[in-house]
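Appendix B. Raw example, untouched.
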Amino acid sequence: KKDKKEKKTPKRSSSPSSSGDETKSSKKAKTSAAPADVDDASSVRVRITGLTKTANAATLSTFLSLAKDDVVVGLWGTSGRGPKPPGGHAFVDVSAKDAKALIKKFDGASVDGETIKVMVDDGSAAEAEAARTPKAPASASRPPLFGGGASLTNAAQSPVNTAPNAPMFNGSTPGEVRADDWACGACGCSNFARRTSCFRCAAPKSAVTSAGPKTAVNTAAARAPAQGSIQEGYEVFLKYLPHSASEEEVTNYFADCGAIVGQARLLRDQLSGQSKGAGFVTFVNEQGRMEALKRDGSRFGGRNVSVTVAKKSTFGVRATEQAYGTHTPAMLAETIAGLVAPDRSGVYVDGTFGRGGHSRGILAALSPEGRLHAFDMDPEAIKEGRELEKQDARFTIHHAPFGQMSQVLKPLGIEPSGVFLDLGISSPQFDDATRGFRPEQDGPLDLRFDVERGMPASEYLRSVSRDELRRVIHEYGETTDPSAARRITDAIVIAREAGMLPSTTKDFAALVARAKGKEYQMMHPAKLTFQALRIALNQEFDEMRRGMFGAFEIMPEHGRLGILTWKHSECAIVVDFYRDYEVVRDDFPLWQWAQSAYGEKCSKKLERKWGMHMDDAQRPSESETRANSRSRSATLHILRKRHAVRISDLERFAYKIKGWGKIAEPAPPPAVTFKYDI
């Protein structure tokens, strides 16, 4: 309390006007003018304060009439002791003469509606922050751009920073480290401000001891085996990269450690395309990785980058190489091996062309005599297919749902050796904001695969009954939470009655999120509602049943049906279809009993019919999920057409003898409601 009282300003003297003027003028002289004893040609650092959160190097450099690379922008925090100040800081290194000109011209100017302060930086702010972290060595010629972050002491202790082969990254926006980033007192490692404990040694943020590094916490990630082999290379995992870093810059930074496989792979935000601050670098040999590990904690783009050995098992999928707005075909190698390899000269069907990823893979595996027919409802996909038709005479595209493949191909006398169905939505459709498939994006609430037919979701929601809407959301989306389905339905109906039903994805997603409340999964609260409406509008499950039945109808014996599912509900429909047409196996218990007890009667009563045999389901490999993160949910089912006794017929025969009831006949496929000229 005494210290606080002493810090309070003294009482005003009898002549407040004169003393106040002196104080103001002295402060202005101290902060706003270059030192008189500094030569005009020498370099000084100018600090600009009062910037808004929207300020960036590009806009500020234009305002100051300077090059973008000369301006470093970053927000100043408060080390967790309260809300961040309303403004930010920026720095410019210029000559003393130019500094005087900048101060004279821009001090007190307005940027984004806020008055900025331009002054010569004397390092006082950085020094105040450094008092809470290990002190910089006396040899440091000037304070760091932003106080906090990794201490210069830690940097000096790192062999990387002094090694002649350790390049320092000087990107266009190197100053992304914040003032409230902190250095661990136990191991000296740099940490983000939001962390409450050190990422490396798990020491609490309040630790100030200078003792040796603590033992790492015993987490599942720490116990996971290290990645590395001659076949897949030797990876390091990078954290705390600048968000402006590019693959090329990261690759160049580690280039002299050893031979690198391809380029660095950065985790990027799917909406903005910006780096998430993490990524991977793969080296050809172990020696290259060991050299890279020596750079753990080295400065890169204004941050102390973390370099650790990549693990074989992590929380979530590692880096993706899939470009935003493109479609990387999932499990292509497994699809080719299961469907095409047995007969490379046959005729095949790709029921879901999309952007042609699987189709191009199948064409590449076919012989010159092979043929491929593809189906799709999306007009954009049809345009892509027409281009592929021009490039490859073996390919034909049909603008129709794959559930109508029998009506299209039967008149042509085509009996395909294999049919492939990649269910759900393609990445380009999902990434296109104008289609309305993602609740995080803003666009028209459409959700149709074929925008030329049917009604958009916005129109459907204005006409569907409450009971039907609740059924759709529950059965196709919120399958485990009927209460959420009911509450979401109620919110939609109330908004509709009030004439306030949103017609854009972002507003509708916000309405659903408010109705559902907290989401226990790591996804948008409206994701399952969007999924349910999409399935209903495009009749995805009915189309799936029509497609499987149509493929079964037109394939010859030993024909192969490959189905790539992405959800449990899709897997369940595949299994239900398979159960109706599953053929008897030699080790099937009911078949063994019937053969031993009623062998001759079985031969007379049970006739051989067309049925299906299913291979073991396959999942994507670890290397594929690393290259294409969206493949992680895929499951490949391959069904083969055979002429044998069906299990359902055997059950009818046995149940009649045992008096166990009746087995229903297979249900016919749902009627087609989409109207296409075939």
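End of appendix B.
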